[in-house]
């Protein structure tokens, strides 16, 4: 049977990044003309696998067999010419160029004298779009099109390269409900034309709807590959999770106090939709959800970094309006941002400059800095957080990830915050420092501070949170008490998508 | 053996990043003592220092602007504006000198404010914003004077060039301003914030700094420093000249770059710039003493900047 022919086999692929194993001995094979779903939690290794397939990264070990030929690795250019196209969430289009120019970018059809043959290119573009059943004016600038149509232009671009295998990395993340139907229709027509699709998504109902087969990855390892036939949702979820709590988390002894921070129906013009939230003194609230579900946006909105479109924020029952982070900081709110190096630290400045930046006024007499007072403060932080550093004058870039995060925490603790929002507080932090940060968080809540912790690591969310909020598509879709929460439940809510949430 | 030489190499580069510009200055002085010993005449030194002061005062502002990842090409325009305002407002009358300087400072501050607002609120790239401001200032001057500057520079203003041996008022003003701004950059909250904004504007905002306000303040300071340099230059020349500041704007950028201030902000400082200013002025003087033509001067300037930038680049990569 032609249908059962394998178009792609990736065998025993391993890849590490500076010692961290991203993929261990992963094998995956796809049948020609099928839709193969690739699922797993954040950090399971999906993107690394795709990057290897697209030629963006070389595997440390393993082989790739595509259309019957074996390869150790290939470059992105070679991957494209072999017929492998990847459509990333961030579309690779030039918004100032029109549809035709984008489809043929870098591969313009030329006449014999070398002049670009616009007429033929336009014809060809129309043919491709027609094949997918889409009507777009090909002379329009891509920037004027909706995201859904831009995505279709990307797919046509792949088709114009005669792609046999198209990888779609969370294509639905940028689409609204009705646009999704159109995408499914296009995928079906691609399938009918013998094109193979690898479909990555966090939303399980999409996987059940469109995929023929599914592969689950977890912690860089292959868990299972099987046909969708007869597979239940529960089976799939437990394959994705299936893990024990390994780390030890300091237990919460205290009861939550009065409400400090309250959000009522806040929306932003990015993704947040009418979010309600309450934070009480002395509690750690975990904010779970997939990447792109709006967790970071919620943190930024509460911190005054992004403008509110509607809704209100109350602090100790009093309505507040933050026009900038400076306002929020004055009201005793702190944000430990997700991207430490880009948003949290000044890596090329000394440790002391980083730590005392928000409180410079407090350590100045008239307008001169009191450097003795500054050193004393830095010294107290060093002790409190056990930051290991040779000297306060050292640039932050020379510290380890864990110590860098401690510097960020030290900076905020000097502002005497009442609410701390932590976005992925232990990302890129070694195990030892992780545990220290957990203990510190508990200690802070015992002093009456409220913590909102965003994390993609479910064990961390489950182990540390007194209460868990799950976000999906800009909304809070579930609130779970510590006792009733489980990885399965969180994943269930985080992946249920718009259809069920609404 | 190879390991040994390599580690030596690295140390040299690290040393260069920290003190390189002073080593370069020292080497230049040694070379000068051989090929142009006249450089060390009291009179030559006096001229050299006065010119260094004129450039150096603008370079203080330029350095701060570059520390917040900016650039100010309008300083030359501000200097010309200063000389015209001084002449127009005082019209040769000594008692109006303070008023004329005050007016120039206010106009200068407004130009700096314009630069800062364009760059922060309208998000115009600094190069474009300050170039636009330069054209606006030049245009306004031409429109106001109709091409022929009127008014006179009061003779008394010449006292700003009083000198005692190689010591002169411009040199002392440069020295004093350097002292003030060194303190400002190193031990005041404002100075810390300047480095933070230049080093990572995103993180600065999320740490509660008013990034816009800090940048605007820096551009205003840079323009006011240009006014001070303009007053000194006007007093020295004694008349109004549209070409009084030719080359000073780009030279101030060059001095900061040679002194190790990074174009991307957050790195460098005034100590380097002082040496950068001296290197540029000494080279210019040597070219004159050697009887070489002006073209040679430009070529040498270009080569020195190229050498400095590539050496800093190397030192960066190693670190």
Q: Could you tell me the number of beta strands of chain B?
A: 2
How far do the termini of chain B sit from each other?
22 Å
CATH architecture designation of the largest domain in chain A: 3-Layer(aba) Sandwich
Strand content of chain B: under 5%
Q: Assign a percent range to the helix content of chain B.
A: over 70%
What structural class do the secondary elements of chain A suggest? alpha/beta
Number of domains of chain A: 3
CATH topology of chain B: ABC transporter involved in vitamin B12 uptake, BtuC
Model regions low in confidence, pLDDT < 50 over at least 5 residues of chain A? 243-247
How many domain units of chain B?
A: 1
What's the SSE blueprint?
The complex is a heterodimer of chains A (502) and B (319).
Chain A: E1 6-17, E2 20-31, E3 35-39, H1 46-54, E4 61-66, E5 69-71, H2 76-82, E6 84-87, H3 99-103, H4 118-131, H5 147-160, E7 165-169, H6 177-192, E8 196-200, H7 204-210, E9 213-218, E10 221-227, H8 233-241, E11 259-267, E12 275-280, E13 284-289, H9 295-302, E14 310-315, E15 318-320, H10 325-330, E16 333-336, H11 340-344, H12 351-356, E17 364-365, E18 368-369, H13 371-385, H14 401-413, E19 419-423, H15 431-446, E20 450-454, H16 458-464, E21 467-472, E22 475-481, H17 487-494, H18 497-501
Parallel strand pairs in A: 3-8, 3-9, 6-7, 7-8, 13-20, 13-21, 16-19, 19-20
Antiparallel strand pairs in A: 1-2, 1-4, 4-5, 9-10, 11-12, 11-14, 14-15, 17-18, 21-22
Helix pairs in contact in A: 4-5, 8-17
Chain B: H1 2-35, H2 42-67, H3 75-90, H4 97-120, H5 126-145, E1 163-164, E2 167-168, H6 169-187, H7 189-199, H8 201-206, H9 211-237, H10 248-258, H11 270-289, H12 294-318
Antiparallel strand pairs in B: 1-2
Characterization of the model:
The complex is a heterodimer of chains A (502) and B (319). Chain A has helices spanning 46-54, 76-82, 99-103, 118-131, 147-160, 177-192, 204-210, 233-241, 295-302, 325-330, 340-344, 351-356, 371-385, 401-413, 431-446, 458-464, 487-494, 497-501; strands at 6-17, 20-31, 35-39, 61-66, 69-71, 84-87, 165-169, 196-200, 213-218, 221-227, 259-267, 275-280, 284-289, 310-315, 318-320, 333-336, 364-365, 368-369, 419-423, 450-454, 467-472, 475-481. The two termini of chain A are 43 Å apart. Helices cover 34% and strands 25% of the residues of chain A. The radius of gyration of chain A is 25 Å and the shape is globular. In chain A, strand 11 (259-267) and strand 12 (275-280) form a beta hairpin. Chain A has 18 helices and 22 strands. Mean pLDDT of chain A is 88; it is low at 243-247. Chain A is of the alpha/beta class and 502 residues long. Chain A has 3 domains: 2-241, 3-Layer(aba) Sandwich (Rossmann fold); 257-332 and 417-502, Rossmann fold; 338-415, no CATH class. Chain B has a single domain, classed as Orthogonal Bundle (ABC transporter involved in vitamin B12 uptake, BtuC). Chain B is built from 12 helices and 2 strands. In chain B, a hairpin with a 2-residue loop joins strand 1 and strand 2 (167-168). The two termini of chain B are 22 Å apart. In chain B, strands 1-2 form a two-stranded antiparallel sheet. In chain B, helix 2 (42-67) packs antiparallel against helix 9, helix 4 runs antiparallel to helix 5 and helix 10 (248-258) packs across helix 11. Chain B has 319 residues and is mainly alpha-helical. Residues 1-10 of chain B have low confidence and may be disordered. The chains are: A alpha/beta (502), B mainly alpha (319). Chains A and B meet through helix 10, helix 11 and strand 18 of A and helix 7 and helix 8 of B.
């Amino acid at each position: 049977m032609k249908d059962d022919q394998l178009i792609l086999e990736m065998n025993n692929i391993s890849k590490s990044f500076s010692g961290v194993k991203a993929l261990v001995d992963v094998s995956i094979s796809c049948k020609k003309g099928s839709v193969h779903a690739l699922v797993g939690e954040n950090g399971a290794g999906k993107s690394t696998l795709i990057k290897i397939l697209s030629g963006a990264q070389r595997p440390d070990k393993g082989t790739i067999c595509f259309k019957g030929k074996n390869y150790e690795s290939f470059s992105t250019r070679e991957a494209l010419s072999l017929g492998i196209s990847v459509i990333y969430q961030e579309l690779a289009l030039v918004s100032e160029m029109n549809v035709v120019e984008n489809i043929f970018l870098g591969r313009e059809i030329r006449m014999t004298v070398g002049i670009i043959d616009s007429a033929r290119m336009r014809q060809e573009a129309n043919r491709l779009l027609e094949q997918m059943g889409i009507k777009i004016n090909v002379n329009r600038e891509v920037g004027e099109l909706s995201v859904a149509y831009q995505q279709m232009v990307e797919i046509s671009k792949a088709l114009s390269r005669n792609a046999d295998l198209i990888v779609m990395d969370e294509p639905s993340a940028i689409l609204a409900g009705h646009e999704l139907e159109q995408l499914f229709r296009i995928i079906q027509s691609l399938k009918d034309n013998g094109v193979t699709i690898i479909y990555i998504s966090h939303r399980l109902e999409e996987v059940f709807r469109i995929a023929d087969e599914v592969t689950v990855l977890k912690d860089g390892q292959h868990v299972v590959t099987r046909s969708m036939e007869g597979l239940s949702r529960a089976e799939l979820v437990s394959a994705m999770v299936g893990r024990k709590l390994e780390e030890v988390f300091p237990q919460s002894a205290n009861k939550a106090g009065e409400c400090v921070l309250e959000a009522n129906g806040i929306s932003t013009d990015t993704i947040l939709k009418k979010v309600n939230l309450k934070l009480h003194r002395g509690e750690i609230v975990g904010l779970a959800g997939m990447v792109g579900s709006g967790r970071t946006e919620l943190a930024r909105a509460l911190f005054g970094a992004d403008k509110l479109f509607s809704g209100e924020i109350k602090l100790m029952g009093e309505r507040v309006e933050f026009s900038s982070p400076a306002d929020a900081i004055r009201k005793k709110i702190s944000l430990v941002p997700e991207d430490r190096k880009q948003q949290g630290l000044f890596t090329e400045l000394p440790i002391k400059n980083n730590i005392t930046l928000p409180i410079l006024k407090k350590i100045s007499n008239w307008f001169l800095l009191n450097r003795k007072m500054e050193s004393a403060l830095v010294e107290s932080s060093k002790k409190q957080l056990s930051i290991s550093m040779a000297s306060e004058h050292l640039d932050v870039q020379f510290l380890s990830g864990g110590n860098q995060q401690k510097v960020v925490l030290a900076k905020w603790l000097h502002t005497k915050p009442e609410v701390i929002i932590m976005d992925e507080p232990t990302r890129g932090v070694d195990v030892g420092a992780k545990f220290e940060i957990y203990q510190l968080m508990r200690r802070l809540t015992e002093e009456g501070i409220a913590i909102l912790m965003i994390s993609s690591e479910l064990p961390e969310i489950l182990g540390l949170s007194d209460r868990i909020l799950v976000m999906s598509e800009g909304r809070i879709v579930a609130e779970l008490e510590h006792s009733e929460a489980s990885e399965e439940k969180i994943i269930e809510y985080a992946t249920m998508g718009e259809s069920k949430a609404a | 053996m190879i390991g040994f030489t390599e580690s030596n190499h690295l140390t040299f580069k690290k040393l260069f990043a920290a003190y390189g510009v002073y080593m370069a200055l020292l080497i230049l002085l040694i070379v000068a003592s051989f090929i142009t010993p006249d450089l060390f005449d009291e009179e030559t030194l006096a001229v050299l220092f006065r010119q260094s002061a004129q450039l150096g005062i603008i370079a203080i502002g330029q350095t701060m602007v570059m520390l917040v990842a900016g650039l100010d090409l309008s300083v030359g325009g501000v200097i010309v504006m200063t000389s015209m305002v001084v002449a127009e407002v005082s019209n040769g009358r000594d008692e109006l000198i303070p008023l004329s300087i005050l007016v120039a400072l206010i106009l200068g501050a407004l130009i700096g404010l314009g630069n800062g607002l364009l760059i922060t609120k309208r998000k115009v790239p600094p190069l474009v914003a300050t170039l636009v401001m330069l054209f606006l200032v030049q245009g306004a001057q031409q429109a106001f004077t109709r091409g022929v500057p009127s008014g006179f520079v009061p003779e008394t203003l010449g006292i700003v060039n009083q000198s005692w041996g190689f010591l002169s008022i411009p040199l002392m003003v440069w020295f004093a301003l350097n002292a003030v701004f060194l303190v400002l950059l190193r031990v005041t909250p404002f100075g810390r914030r300047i480095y933070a904004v230049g080093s990572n504007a995103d993180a600065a905002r999320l740490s509660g700094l008013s990034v816009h306000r800090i940048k605007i303040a820096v551009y205003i300071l840079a323009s006011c420093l240009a006014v001070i340099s303009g007053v000194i230059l006007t007093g020295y020349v004694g008349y109004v000249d549209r070409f009084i500041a030719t080359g000073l704007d780009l030279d101030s950028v060059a001095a900061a770059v040679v002194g190790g201030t990074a174009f991307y902000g957050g790195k460098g400082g005034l100590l380097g710039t002082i040496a950068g200013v001296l290197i540029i002025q000494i080279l210019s003087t040597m070219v004159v003493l050697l009887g070489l033509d002006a073209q040679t001067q430009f070529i040498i300037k270009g080569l020195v900047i190229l050498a400095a930038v590539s050496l800093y680049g190397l030192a960066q990569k190693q670190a």
